[in-house]
Amino acid sequence: MGVITYIVSYLIIINLIGFVIMGVDKLKAKKRAWRIPESTLFVVALIGGSLGTTIGMHVFHHKTRHWYFLYGMPAILLIQIAIVVVLIYSPIQFTIL
């Protein structure tokens, strides 16, 4: 398997995790049970799960009243997309071992 396959696999898995933890946290909020810390939700977004957490936030209607989630999660996603675009169109050629 190539490096690209590993990267795409990682992104799929981390975004599924982001989506699921938003759903789990919403379920726990309804039951007034132990919650997933907000910092954990943001860390998952920062390490590549921003699309999954953003979609999960809207699907489960969770954390949509908190401005730092409503604007922060999409901002993280946009920054990550911008970084990928810059790396793709960079004049520096990256070689993969």
Task: Give an overview in words.
The structure is a single chain. This protein has 97 residues and is mainly α. It has four helices and no strands. The protein has helices spanning 3-30, 38-59, 67-70, 72-88. The longest helix has 28 residues, at 3-30. It is elongated and about 50 Å long. The model has no long low-confidence stretch (mean pLDDT 91).
Shape: elongated
Distance between the termini: 13 Å
Uncertain runs: none
Derived structural class = mainly alpha
Rg (C-alpha, Å)? 15 Å
- Could you state the order of secondary-structure elements as H and E? HHHH
Number of distinct beta strands: 0
Major sheet characteristics: none
The fraction of residues in strands falls at: under 5%
Q: What would the average pLDDT be, to the nearest integer?
A: 91
Question: What are the defining features of this structure?
Answer:
4 helices, 97 residues, elongated, mainly alpha
Would you spell out the secondary-structure blueprint of this structure?
Elements: H1 3-30, H2 38-59, H3 67-70, H4 72-88
